[in-house]
Amino acid sequence: MREIVECVPNFSTSDAETVELILNEIKKTKNAFLLDYTFDDYYNRLVVSFVGSKKSMLEAALNMAFKAVELIDMRQHKGQHPRIGAVDVVPFIPIKNVTMDNCVELARKFGETLAKKCGVPVYLYGEAATKPERWDLDWIREGEYERLAEMIVKPKRKPDFGPAKLHPTAGATITGARKVMAGFNVNIGTADLKIAKKIAKPLHAKKGGFSNVKAMAAFIPEENITQIGMSITDFERTPLYRVFEMLKVEAARYNIPIVGSEFCGMAPLKALIDIAAYYLKIDNLTEDRVLEIAIQNAIKKEGVSE
Amino acid sequence: MREIVECVPNFSTSDAETVELILNEIKKTKNAFLLDYTFDDYYNRLVVSFVGSKKSMLEAALNMAFKAVELIDMRQHKGQHPRIGAVDVVPFIPIKNVTMDNCVELARKFGETLAKKCGVPVYLYGEAATKPERWDLDWIREGEYERLAEMIVKPKRKPDFGPAKLHPTAGATITGARKVMAGFNVNIGTADLKIAKKIAKPLHAKKGGFSNVKAMAAFIPEENITQIGMSITDFERTPLYRVFEMLKVEAARYNIPIVGSEFCGMAPLKALIDIAAYYLKIDNLTEDRVLEIAIQNAIKKEGVSE
């Protein structure tokens, strides 16, 4: 049975050449397959999604991280997305025939090796967290790269691997394990970041919004509009349609139209099913009722090859 | 490269024992895989969906048809869905590494063999049609089983295979080839079939509705409500959300609520994507941006096995 882990590393760069060199490390790795990558100037951030076996994921993720530490200088970095390092966050996600514990182990090995080889301090988060507060990426990222030097020396913020001292050009890295999540960005028809923040706030878990949702506002200079960037960590409990409808309600308050939206990274099928089921009131829609998945399952189950 | 054909035969029965014997023929066939089947009393109709290689599809479809001809007596048959025979309609659908022409050929072989072995008159429809008017299932089915004896002797209605004479217990059969379509049923909160018909009518292509859409109304006695049963033959051109929204508009005219809906058979992924993209205004959603499909494609493309 084939094992599949997904890894979605986030790097603090939008330089095309650096992006290419980082992505190249996936191509060089046997049994590692690139699914998707996005980067843009306003976040100044590269988000990569790739899959493969446990062994290949660890190998490729480490080589990408080494490359990023070599090429990215955080002292020069500006961007609207919170970050503390060149290799900002590296989650491992169980997809098939792999447990969450396997992914926790991958994160630990990744963190340990990165710290040892590059001297980058590493924090474990999510399912790999060693303390309850470290479950949360935002807690670890508090103060961002700019205040990392003062934060990292606090006993409560001692890194899980490496020195309690920021790497001058690479900052620090967060790695961990988590479930598949949905990244979803909604563009709204205003250039006013203050209003965008007012719309993002009531969606955000920590500010009284939906549990499982993080929402932030960013300005998109090319289009002179703003974007509500969201991550929905448990989209089965907090389905996207519900978050979207609430975003619409809040935007309507300021007469701001919804311009469009997009998944940041891959769209999980279950998230799409929940959207379709809600709006069309479909009673019995499950993943195995989707033609393409049913065919895959039927053929695989029987184990027949032609 | 594995070839995949889907076959979705419709039989005029809802007798559990008959259903089981018909489905058994799939199990007996190598490289044929059952995806789904539904049957109910009000339509008195069994709809099966199964996939496999060309050879296995032809073999299984024929054996299922032989079994249905043996067991079903159309003289006893009552049901709300239009039908002309025990083996009412047998479409072959290209899914992967198979052309529409391959499926036309399968339909011809199926029809020829069924006519020869059982003496059942067979019409070709859809992409396999031999005359333009026979493209349309409804044209062929006009008058249904009850008037088949008088219709079949008209020169324009000469069967493509077999005698121009109905088989007394099995009626006639329609076979052909077509693209994947979506079967979609919406339950509405009225027991009044007259109103349900008024809501179905403006959706139906031939009655001024959407091209690619057939819509009919049926009464569901168990729940004392009615159902708008639809088939959308080209759901890329006529997406489901559009049909659903128009159905809502028509139902609102009579103050009838939408109770729920369901796919009849499998839900094509592209249909779900179009629904999600419409309601959440998603700009860039394609099949290969769905996580489960992207993983499948990435791994297959590289052709690596572990």
The helicity of chain A comes to 25-40%
SSE arrangement of chain A, N to C:
EEHEEHEHEHHEEHEEHEHH
Class by helix and strand content of chain A?
A: alpha+beta
* Main sheet overview of chain A: 7 strands, mixed
Question: Strand-residue fraction of chain A?
Answer: 15-25%
Q: Report the CATH topology name of the largest domain in chain A.
A: Formiminotransferase-cyclodeaminase, Chain B, domain 1
Mean pLDDT of chain A: 95
Give an overview in words.
Two copies of one chain form a homodimer. The longest helix of chain A has 19 residues. Chain A starts with a strand and ends with a helix. Chain A is of the alpha+beta class. In chain A, the strands form two sheets. In chain A, strands 1, 2, 3, 4, 5, 6 and 7 form a seven-stranded mixed sheet that branches. Chain A has a four-stranded antiparallel sheet with strand order 9-10-8-11, with helices on one face. Chain A is globular, with a radius of gyration of 20 Å.
Short synopsis of the structure:
Chain A has 306 residues and is of the alpha+beta class. Chain A is 34% helix and 24% strand.
Characteristic terms for this protein:
homodimer; 306 residues; alpha+beta; Formiminotransferase-cyclodeaminase, Chain B, domain 1; Alpha-Beta Plaits; 2 domains; seven-stranded mixed sheet; four-stranded antiparallel sheet; 24% strand; globular
